[in-house]
Design brief:
The chain contains ten helices and no strands. The chain is mainly alpha-helical and about 260 residues long. The chain is globular and about 65 Å long. The protein starts with 13 loop residues before the first helix and ends with a helix.
Length: about 260
């Protein structure tokens, strides 16, 4: 399986779509209560896929045009996400208002999470209002899952600028190949720093005056940035593809790793 970027940003990628299907499947099976205790890692897989796809898109643009059209990039993200998100929020709020209990905070938390989803901060709202993801029944907040969408949107907001900055700085060191290597180095630095931050928060090595630093690690963008960076690293590291045998080895190692983690 080649890791080359498709010739068109809209080209069908069976490998990417297949990986998304695996991620969706493990998340759904986890939420059905089946014995798949680590199925929530499907979200992590989605973040890595996003890092890969967006890095491929941005590098392709930089190589052909030597610039990033930020307005076009954000317009595409808005058209892709906002219509579906708006429908979900409107329907969920209406149903919650009609069927939700007025004697607890279900309606209030759902409304607050909806505002968070609109303002790209649902992950912060869920962390502050609900705490642990597994401590609150989904029926108490039917918009609980929007936390991951906000993390994704925060990534879209910041990542193109980071890539552009790394690319411009790399330009001072040589030709396009040097720019990609500089970008790869920058993503590796981000991945390592974010992963270390995630580990220290996950195991409460540092607290930052938070009562639940481990859940901060779960919800926050800085502690999730390494997953997006890994996707970008995968694209840049295997940009020219790998041999048939190594690609099959990587395929089975990755698939077995996802299943075993789940």
């Amino acid at each position: 399986m080649s890791s080359n970027a498709p010739s068109s940003p809209h080209a069908f990628r069976p490998d990417i779509q297949g990986l998304r299907a695996v991620a969706v499947l493990v998340v759904v099976l986890f939420h059905t209560g089946l014995p798949l205790p680590g199925g929530f890692i499907g979200v992590d897989v989605f973040f890595v896929i996003s890092g890969y796809v967006i890095t491929a898109l941005l590098v392709r643009t930089l190589r052909t045009e030597n610039r990033i059209d930020f307005r076009l990039f954000y317009e595409r993200r808005i058209r892709r996400l906002i219509p579906a998100l708006t429908l979900v929020l409107v329907v969920t709020l209406a149903v919650t208002f009609i069927l939700g209990s007025p004697f607890d905070d279900q309606q209030t938390i759902t409304a607050q999470t909806a505002i968070g989803a609109i303002t790209l901060s649902a992950n912060a709202v869920v962390f502050l209002k609900s705490g642990g993801y597994f401590a609150t029944p989904p029926t108490n907040n039917p918009l609980l899952n929007t936390w991951s969408l906000s993390v994704e949107e925060q990534f879209y907001l910041v990542f193109p600028l980071l890539v552009f900055v790394f690319w411009v700085i790399g330009r001072k060191f040589g030709h396009k190949i040097s720019q990609e290597r500089f970008l790869l180095t920058g993503l590796i630095f981000i991945a390592v720093a974010s992963f270390l931050f995630s580990i220290t928060m996950s195991f409460s090595f540092i607290h930052l005056r938070l009562s639940d630093p481990n859940w901060f690690a779960f919800y926050s963008s800085p502690t999730r940035a390494w997953e997006f960076a890994v996707g970008g690293i995968a694209f840049l590291a295997f940009r020219n593809g790998v041999g048939k045998i190594p690609s099959m080895v990587l395929f089975w190692v990755g698939l077995i790793g996802i299943v075993a983690s789940s």
